[in-house]
Structures are given as C-alpha cells and as structure tokens.
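From the shared-data thread, chain only:
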Amino acid sequence: MASVEEVKRRHEASLMKIRGVVGVGIGRYPDGRDCIRVYVEKDHPRILAAIPHDLDQVPVEVVVAGSFKAL
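Structure, as tokens:
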C-alpha cells in the first residue's frame, strides 16, 4: 500500500477541483489509522457526494471547516 503522503500528493489536485473543497491534509483517527482529511466549506449533499470514501485504500475523512483566509 502507498504511504498516506503519496496518496495525498497523487489526489490533492483533483480533490481541490471539487467545488466547496477548501483544503486537503493528512489526519489520524483515534485508533491510530492514518486518513486523508478533506476540508469543505459547508455540509452540503452535493459536495459530500463528490468526495470518495477512500483513496487507494486510505480512508477519507470530511471536515466541515468553513472558508479559509490567508493572514
């Protein structure tokens, strides 16, 4: 299985093209499993339906984060 960093790098651009996605990162579940975190602007069915449940066997976690602003 590819490392979570490789999976993120391979899929980040396509995830960022989904309208409503504001960021992509790497996270860890409480049980220690790595995951790809996809940050979305709002909890909208259209956005959630466009995000896969896993990428190359790495689970995907969606986090509603609102919009990001550079400081």
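The CA atoms of residues 59 and 69 lie 27 Å apart.
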